[in-house]
Write a structure and sequence with these properties.
Length: about 290
């Protein structure tokens, strides 16, 4: 069996390049999240983290301004949905949402061209896809869930908006989904990388990583410890993810092939996975 994996999508229009390849030869395609993401998301996240109230114009209602900022994301997701509907003629598309696939954006865009597999197990051609949205919650979100951010949302509400999760939840949820199935038939699809597996940010962001996640990220590793623990314990055949673009690559970890699909940008690189018996062959291809 072979299938395709696409990382964080930079521009909707880049997806049209997929129509130039023989899509009929692939039964399905996987999106690893940050489908609707734009640089606006980084600006919003930074302003939230720094509690920068000057980010909001004085004449604007904070919540209305927040929704206004997300309008380009809504339009991007609608464009992607329309392109993927053309791709649906040839193959099925499964996806997880990332931290910039804001819940309010998804609710407004209402995409129908892909199946979101968050906390679900999907059987296809004898293999099982188990998906999980988002990235780990920041410590301050866990410690102060009712504190409000600069837009007037509680940290608890923000965590839901950004598809954030607690480490113990991703571990136990993936365990519950997959423990009744053979590990060599399990494919894990997440947005976040596992901790210390293709999850290191570029040097200029290490200080941000440390401030965000504490000492565990002092070397720039920002992946999920819960996901790492699950992978090392249950050894699924594949772990697919994105999120940290600068750590794109393929790495074998204790029997599991881990793939950071990176970013789908102007280079139009995607990942082709081939599963032959119990062997995994993964490579990047240009479309």
């Amino acid at each position: 069996m072979k299938f395709l994996v696409i990382g964080d999508i930079e521009e909707a229009e880049y997806l049209n390049a997929l129509l130039n390849i023989d899509l009929k030869s692939y039964p399905f395609m996987v999106l690893t999240g940050d489908i609707a993401g734009l640089p606006t998301g980084w600006k919003i996240g930074r302003a939230r983290a720094l509690e920068d109230k000057n980010f909001i114009p004085p004449n604007k209602d904070p919540k209305e301004y927040y929704q206004e900022l997300l309008e380009p994301n809504v339009e991007k997701l609608r464009k992607i949905d329309n392109i993927l509907k053309k791709i649906n003629r040839y193959l099925k598309v499964f996806a997880v949402y990332g931290n910039t696939d804001f819940k309010s954006v998804v609710e407004r865009a209402k995409p129908t061209s892909f199946d979101v597999i968050h906390n679900k197990l999907v059987e296809i051609n004898g293999f099982y896809l188990a998906g999980y949205n988002g990235h780990p919650m920041y410590p301050w979100e866990i410690e102060n869930p009712l504190k409000k951010d600069i837009f007037g949302y509680t940290y608890e509400e923000t965590a839901l908006e950004l598809n954030s999760f607690k480490e113990e939840n991703i571990y136990h949820d993936l365990k519950s989904l997959t423990e009744s199935y053979p590990n060599d038939r399990i494919i894990i699809v997440t947005h976040t990388p596992p901790y210390r597996i293709l999850d290191k940010v570029k040097p200029e962001l290490i200080e941000w990583a440390r401030k965000s996640y504490g000492e565990k990220s002092k070397d720039g590793n920002v992946g999920s410890t819960g996901l790492r623990n699950f992978i090392l314990e249950y050894k699924p055949i594949l772990s697919l993810f994105g999120h940290i673009h600068e750590s794109v690559g393929i790495e074998k970890v204790d029997g599991t092939t881990c793939v950071n699909a990176g970013k789908f940008d102007e280079n139009k690189e995607i990942v082709e996975i081939r599963l032959e018996r119990k062997e995994v062959k993964a490579k990047f291809i240009s479309v």
